[in-house]
Amino acid sequence: MKLLTYSSKNNPLRLGVLVDEHTIVDPQQAYIELLKDRGQERADEIANALVPQNQTEFIAGGDLALQTANEAVNYALENSQQTAAIYKKENVQIGPPVLKPNKIICVGLNYKNHILEMKRDFPAHPVIFAKFATAIAGPNDVFPLNSNLTQKLDYEAELAFVIGKTGKDIKSEDALDYVYGYSVANDITARDMQKRTIQWLQGKTLDKSLPLGPVLVTKDEIANPHCLDISLTVNGELRQQSNTEQLLFNVNHLIEFLSGIFTLEPGDIVCTGTPGGVGEAQGKFLQDGDLVRVEISGIGAIETTIKEVTKHE
Asked: How many Å apart are CA 208 and CA 188, to the nearest integer?
């Protein structure tokens, strides 16, 4: 299943299911219609419990929520002439597939060619840092560049995965059982801010610096997360191209490592690191008007436009 968030007529973002390139089904709305068709008087309350419109709550619902949503989507498609739960993608605004996770965990220096281009030693343990939820942006949002803050804005194409259930001290061989799904991310980074102290956080968590999407693909559609092509272009120029098989610490290892430090929870986002080709290594930083596209096979692509917002006197 391909999950996203959408908004119609400027309403708050809510959970949707992408069924084809142009069609979105609202699973909660569809389930309400299904229940009412069956004569259920408390359709709204039941649908809100089983298919919540909040993404993190839906993820926490696990297999039952997915099965119910699938039933609802099929009902809507079978009754497409009567339902109010189907939307054309071009008529709605698409948001990030996860909005307010408890944790956003990022991994640095996790592709060999990126470690080499940054002239760093191969880490013995995963290098981790955090972003805040205010960094999350939609798959086609504009990034507000403030050149008073940074002159060295960079891009980082990344595979992100989302945790599906609570876990602590998870073994590597069991790790993928705790993954809910996968998404495309761009870890937009202010390199000058990142490097001005020994802690990276200030350069890593600017508002809207984590474009995410276009969907969250549930793990049943991606049997092996370690064979996915990943690429990034700026204004059509290829800057990054690799495959997730090149990860130094793969998804299994990261889940075992991270869950040994803290409890992983439903909706937590983990960004797995970026391959070689970042702007820092080439002296090519993002500028006003640049269009950054990140694509991962089996998931899709996100596009972010860089827009200068600094007010010059």
From this structure: 8
Residue range(s) defining the domain that contains residue 85: 2-94
Predicted TM-score of the model (pTM)? 0.96
Characterize the bridge pairing of strands 179-186 and 210-218: antiparallel
Q: Is residue 263 part of a domain?
A: yes
Query: Does residue 189 sit in the same domain as residue 296?
Result: yes
Domain co-membership, 128 together with 222:
yes
**Same domain membership, residue 112 and residue 82:** no
Q: In Å, how far are 32, 145, 171, 213, 218 from 87, measured between CA atoms?
A: 16, 33, 41, 18, 21
pLDDT more than 70, % of the chain: 99
User: Do the Cβ atoms of 47 and 28 come closer than 8 Å?
Assistant: yes
Verify that 12 and 120 share a domain, yes or no. no
Tens of pLDDT along 287-298?
A: 999 999 999 999
